[in-house]
Write a structure and sequence with these properties.
Elements lengths: L11 H23 L1 H22 L10 H9 L4 E8 L3 E9 H8 L3 H19 L2 E3 L11 E6 L3
Antiparallel strand pairs: 1-2, 2-4, 3-4
Length: 155
């Protein structure tokens, strides 16, 4: 089989779409059985534990030594994100996302509440593993006009 004969690899967005089309109905079923808040709280607690575990294992690093911008390129592949890199320095990387297909997907599935944890929350795990910090004051997922990613060195 030549490289031209192989199926094209899925983009991060395409993989996420497939996963969410399966996971969201399952979580909604669990919410109908256990209660909406119980399931959201359990997901949030699981995310918190994953972030904490990643922070414990990672050495604090300068954000410029990580692959932050390349990560955005990966998640933006296929036109999934429109974003601008405002600052790209050794101790700070600032990126604004102007359009997010991940948020649109979760809104179409009526699941922005789940997307905030399952998709946006993964950013926190990734950053913790890299030994850096991330703050955001708003996201498209929760109705913001943009996602403002502010990466900083260390923890």
């Amino acid at each position: 089989m030549t490289s031209d004969d192989r199926p094209k690899a899925l983009t991060a967005y395409e993989r996420t779409r497939i996963q969410m089309e399966y996971v969201v109905p399952l979580l909604r079923d669990l919410q109908s059985i256990l209660g909406e808040k119980v399931v959201l709280d359990a997901l949030a607690e699981r995310l918190r534990r994953r972030v904490t575990a990643a922070e414990v294992r990672a050495e604090p690093r300068r954000v410029g030594e990580t692959r932050v911008v390349l990560g955005f390129e990966h998640f933006a592949a296929g036109g999934a994100l429109d974003y601008q890199t405002l600052t790209d320095g050794p101790d700070a990387v600032d990126i604004d996302v102007d359009r997010c297909s991940y948020a649109t997907l979760m809104q179409e599935l009526d699941a922005a509440d789940l997307g905030d944890i399952l998709i946006c929350g993964e950013d926190l795990v990734t950053v913790a593993r890299a030994g850096t910090r991330l703050t955001r004051s708003e996201t498209h997922m929760l109705g913001g006009d943009r996602c403002d990613f502010r990466f900083r060195s260390g923890r």
